[in-house]
Amino acid sequence: MLDIILVNRRPIFNKLAEAWLDAGATFFAVVNGGQVLASWPDYLGSDTADLTAPIVVNDVYLGELHVGGLHSEEARQMLAVEGQVIEAMVQQEQELNSVAAVLVDTQDQFWALYQLTQTTRSYLDMEEMLEALLAKSADLMSTKSAFIWLELVTGQLLFYQHPAVLLGKGDVTDFLLRLVRSKAGFLCLREVGNHPGIENILMVPVDVRFAKTAVIGMVNKVEGAFTTPDIKLARIIAEYAGAQVENVISYQDSLDKARLRQQMELAERVQSQLFSQEKPQVPGVDFWAASKAASHVGGDFYDYYLHPNGCLTFVVGDVSGKGIASALLMAMTLSVTRIRMQRTPALSPAQIVEQVNSELYKDFSRVNMFATVFVGQFDLANGRLVYANAGHSPIILCPADYKAMFIEADSEPMGILPKTTATERTIFLKSGDLLVVGSDGLYEVHNEDEEMFGLDRLATAVSSLRTETARTLTNKVLELIHHFNAGQYQEDDRTILVLKPTGS
Fold first, then answer.
1. How confident is the model at residue 128 (pLDDT cuts 50, 70, 90)?
2. In angstroms, rounded to a whole number, what is the distance separating the alpha carbons of residues 341 and 304?
3. What is the 3-class SS of 8-45, one letter each residue?
4. Which residues are CB-neighbours of 247 under 8 A, at least 6 positions away?
């Protein structure tokens, strides 16, 4: 089947190959079982491919795409996407072959419709496909012109004519109303009002899953008027046109989804690079942090910075909302916060909150969003923790000799007011004490019985793990929540930061 695709859709493969060679590839090839079906430039199979992508349709292996000279993850993902596109081509070819075979076997006149399938099957662009379809339809129907009207469910209106411009959109709208009212499945007009040069029109509705209204029309029979066989053939053309329009829309949709998926995966990698990659190695402090986004990108963030003066400044935040908007604001908030954290001399937690809020307030207010933020500054010399809590929860303090308690927020989130009311608090941590700063995704989690994990269960889990290392505690809490949420969609990001003075 791949060899047939290569013949029927050679221009598409030429464009793919050209793009890969322009990107620096040494070759692009289509291979089946060690046999090179096509290559750009000549590729005898002796060179080892650096990237491969299988082509599998209905669990049947058909071949592979080979690329040489490139090794990046982005290139690998793009080749995989193109493999999926070719798989869709093969499926479409199989479907069209099946349809064509049925038509040819049904009646002699369907041979003409088979010609139509051969004319349009290689087009994946809507405009190009419709232009070819209308041109061939006018030829098959022996008319001077043909048109198609598509009102998609998205609201997009498509109107094409070939070859002559004889009708306007308003004219076709009038005809559509008459067609709907006729309830005949077709509309054949011999008198077309005040349209010079138009003698007759045959219109047939087109069944398209993605369209509110669709119709194909034939204008001006070359000889005589439209006959009953013409109407039958027009209906068959309309049925084929509907299937072909759906194929192109489905192809474009699958391609868009593949591109979006690739872009989201890239965004996920980029966002992960925003987080501090190496945890600070600080004598006397066991420290760890982790974040798991609900989707590819999220609104939670954390960061930390060890100042030359021996203070460890850290932040955990949660931008409201979900998706791309939340992720973009998260990146902005993290970047601005990081700059403030790395100031020398060090800014206090309240100053960091105030300055970040002042810089980003307009951005948050424009989109009616906000960010909860906890900023802490731990003095390694004396165990003093100074913090500012702008609407953030949960913060769990586990003294070595007492049960876990929650630290409540004492000011509003960032982005609510032009000038924040953030205040600073001070506590002292000694060896054996434990501080856990999380996001609401840790406790606003539901199981299959719609029971929420809750703050109490989270505090109990943290207390039971207080003797573990910060990294182990982080991982076990996330595992416990994941197990509780098993089988359910993760609705929110989950972030946790753990700080444990060790005294050594």
1. confident
2. 8
3. HCHHHHHHHHHHHHHCCCCEEEEEECCEEEEEECCCCC
4. 92, 95
Q: Which residues are paired to 150 by β-bridges?
A: 158, 214
Neighbouring-strand partners of residue 282:
none
Burial class from Cβ neighbours inside 10 Å (0-12, 13-18, 19+) for residue 108 reads exposed
Structure tokens at 245: 């329009």
Q: Is the pLDDT of residue 372 over 80?
A: yes
Helices (H) and strands (E) in the chain, counts: 11, 19
**Cα angle for residues 345, 289, 417 (degrees, 5° grid):** 60
List, in sequence order, the alpha helices (H) in 163-212: 169-182
Which value, in Å, is the radius of gyration of the alpha carbons in the chain? 32
- Does position 131 have pLDDT exceeding 60, yes or no? yes
State residue 295's pLDDT score.
65
Can you tell me the distance from the alpha carbon of 409 to that of 391, in angstroms, rounded to the nearest whole number? 5
CATH of the domain at 116: 3.30.450.40
Same domain, 212 and 284: no
Domain closes at, from 213, 247, 274: 274
pLDDT in tens, 34-67: 788 889 987 656 678 899 999 988 888 889 999 9
**Do 362 and 453 fall into the same domain?**
yes
What integer best gives the mean pLDDT of the chain?
83
Contacts of 463 (CB under 8 A, 6+ apart): 398, 403, 404
Q: How many domains does the chain have?
A: 3
Q: Distance between CA 169 and CA 479 in Å, rounded?
A: 60
- Reported as type and span, the H/E element at residue 1 is none
Q: Is residue 284 within 8 Å of 492, Cβ to Cβ? A: no
Residue (of 462, 439, 473, 394) closest to 294 by Cα position: 439
Q: Is the pLDDT assigned to residue 340 strictly greater than 60?
A: yes
Q: Give CA–CA dist 400/245, Å, rounded.
A: 69
Are 376 and 309 found together in one domain?
A: yes
b/e map of 18-51 (b: 16 or more CB within 10 Å)? Answer: eebbeeebebbbbbeeeebbbbbeebeeeeebbb
pLDDT digits (tens, 9 = 90+) for 31-43: 988 788 889 987 6
Q: Which domain holds residue 427?
A: 275-501
Same domain, 19 and 80: yes
